[in-house]
Design a protein that fits this description.
Helix content is 67%, strand content 10%. The longest helix is centred in the middle third of the chain and has 79 residues. The protein is of the alpha+beta class and 379 residues long. It has a 5-stranded mixed beta sheet. The protein is elongated. It has 3 domains: 126 residues; 70 residues; 133 residues, Histidine kinase-like ATPase, C-terminal domain (Heat Shock Protein 90).
Length: 379
């Protein structure tokens, strides 16, 4: 979690200032006896749910948490109105904020409409205003719903766009660095490899032409040995430079999955990584994509790379159902071995209803310094 996200959650807690009608109702003595206890418990529960959602609920991946939070806050708002004896629009504002920020656009609009309608029903049933005032209140509620719900929807859209732009920028930098590494590897192989091969051949020919015991024969053999070692080192360096990069593999995964008629969703916000970690993640993406295309019969695939405490987690989930997918095979065993070298783990399992999940974690991922990327790109 970035510092901005952490402080943003703390800043969202300032919305609890909208609960000032609770204090006013107590100070004015509008609640008495058992109603006072119910009113206080409801207000504490309302605030507790909102605080929990801001600090912990947003981290949960379940699709049920946001609508459940909105629904529980809206019901508690109704309870607070009835126990307090008067309608307060403030109690419905926080559910509007949560709905606009947490739910997808279409579901958020539906939730905003339901909360606004619930607030209007409270005015009609509890306040018992005349028709004219009720119509006026209904007209006034619409801008409030649009202002609170729509503004948080816009804020969420801007934050998501900013996150995608940062991820795209890092991915472009990684892709450019990967292309530069491929160019260096190609030039290294073509230039040094060719020259060293000729030196080795000439040296071997010279050792055959020189008679045994002639002065300088041992030195020529040493030259041949050194050139072979140098050629081996060049091959090792080239193979290291030609390791898969994360950006390249994600691009290839998008192309392969779309060509197979599979909708693909990619979430990548891990930033720049060291070459070794990036290569292993690239192998995970390649192997997982190959399995989805060949064996899953899926219609949708999601690839998500996220930061964990001190490490990286990559998850590839598909909704395939045609062929039973078992976490066995040379490809997955090879991934397990690669991850183990970095202190990582691999989990592969079928989902309860349909689909398959491949999850890999690397606990000691190292960030690549931005200056190193710039040097590779500009080299």
């Amino acid at each position: 979690m970035s510092r901005g996200e952490r402080w943003g959650r703390y800043f969202a807690l300032t919305a609890l200032a909208l609960m000032w009608p609770v204090v006013v109702d107590y100070m004015r003595g509008l609640v008495h006896g058992a109603n006072a206890a119910i009113f206080g418990i409801s207000a504490v529960l309302y605030c507790g749910i909102y605080v929990w959602y801001c600090l912990a609920g947003l981290k949960l991946r379940g699709r049920v948490v946001p609508p459940a939070t909105v629904g529980s806050l809206a019901l508690l708002a109704v309870l607070l109105d009835h126990v307090g004896g008067e309608v307060s629009l403030n109690y419905f504002l926080i559910p509007l904020l949560v709905a606009g920020f947490s739910l997808p656009a279409r579901r958020a609009i539906i939730a905003l409409g339901l909360v606004g309608t619930l607030c209007l029903l409270e005015l009609v049933l509890l306040a018992r205003m005349p028709i004219g005032e009720t119509v006026l209140e209904a007209i006034l509620i619409v801008p409030v719903v649009v202002l609170f719900g729509g503004s948080t929807m816009g804020l969420r859209y801007l934050l998501d766009t900013l996150s995608e732009l940062r991820a795209a920028r890092a991915e472009i930098a990684q892709h450019a660095a990967g292309q530069e590494r491929y160019r260096i590897a190609r030039d290294l192989h073509d230039l040094l490899g060719h020259s060293l091969s000729l030196i080795t051949l000439k040296g071997e020919l010279a050792t055959r032409l020189l008679p045994e015991g002639v002065r300088g024969t041992a030195e020529v053999r040493d030259i041949v040995t050194l050139s072979r070692d140098a050629m081996r080192q060049v091959r090792e360096a080239v193979s290291g430079y030609r390791q898969p990069t994360l950006a390249t593999e994600l691009t290839a995964a998008r192309v392969a999955l779309k060509a197979a008629g599979i909708d693909v969703e990619v979430k990548q916000n891990v930033g720049a990584l060291d070459r070794e970690t990036e290569a292993v993640l690239g192998w995970v993406v390649r192997e997982a994509t190959t399995n989805v295309v060949r064996h899953s019969g899926a219609k949708h695939c999601r690839i998500a790379l996220t930061r964990t405490d001190g490490g990286i987690e990559i998850e590839v989930v598909n909704d395939g159902w045609r062929v039973p997918q078992m976490p066995a095979g040379n490809g997955l065993r090879g991934l397990d071995e690669r991850l183990a070298l970095l202190g990582g783990t691999l989990e592969a399992s079928a989902l309860p209803e349909s689909g398959f999940r491949l999850r890999a974690t690397i606990s000691r991922a190292v960030d690549a310094h931005p200056a190193a990327i710039d040097a590779e790109v500009s080299g």
